[in-house]
Amino acid sequence: MNPVLLLIEDDAVLRGGLMELFTREGYRVIEAGSVREARQKKDETVQGIVLDVGLPDGDGVSLCREWRAQGETRPILFLTAKDEEFDVVRGLDSGGNDYVTKPFRMQELLSRVRVLLRNSPPRKAALSRGGFDLDEERMQVLKNGEALPLTLTEYKILTMLLESKAVVSRDRLLQVLWDDGGKFIDDNTLSVHMSRLREKVGADHIRTVRGVGYQWSDIM
Ligand code: CA
Questions:
Q1: How far apart are CA 162 and CA 156, in angstroms?
Q2: Based on the domain organization, do 35 and 104 belong to the same domain?
Q3: Which of 80, 183, 196, 215 is the most exposed place for a label (fewest CB within 10 A)?
Q4: What is the CATH number of the domain that holds 199?
Q5: Could you give the CA distance from residue 49 to residue 74 in angstroms, rounded to a whole number?
Q6: Can you give the pTM of this predicted structure?
């Protein structure tokens, strides 16, 4: 199940770029360009909110405060511009969880969003692809109903592959594996994990995309 973000940004070019970025990373993105549109589009599927502070019909901080007052608990990350009046204290007081200042590095935004979603209670949804079932409660992957004997690292890699419709980059795998365990994993180690994982799930299920990363394939 791809994580769902609500992206509220009025700069169409930036919004387009962010849409592309998040989509490539396996998120599903709902976009909005104004406060009005944001109110309409925030539905139950949304797991995290990326909220521009300066919007044509209002400001993100007030919108955040309004949502929190209504009991909204999902994580909210502000996008602020250097030349915009953004008071960090006021922003976080309004109930925002984090913020990044434009111009920001795409990788930084991605990692902040990842942390936010990780710290918020995950939405449990069974994932099933090509005879493989992901059981997040037990941290297991079942192949035709039988649990695969996976190491923790293999489980994490396999989860990322199963959850993404797109190619998962080596960089992203390395980053997540490193973030989670605190133990450094280099390129060679990743290759070793990958080949062991392939033996367990069937080599043809994991496609190598040269120079980029890996992609799950349902059909053998
Ligand atoms: Ca703006």
A1: 10
A2: yes
A3: 183
A4: 1.10.10.10
A5: 7
A6: 0.56
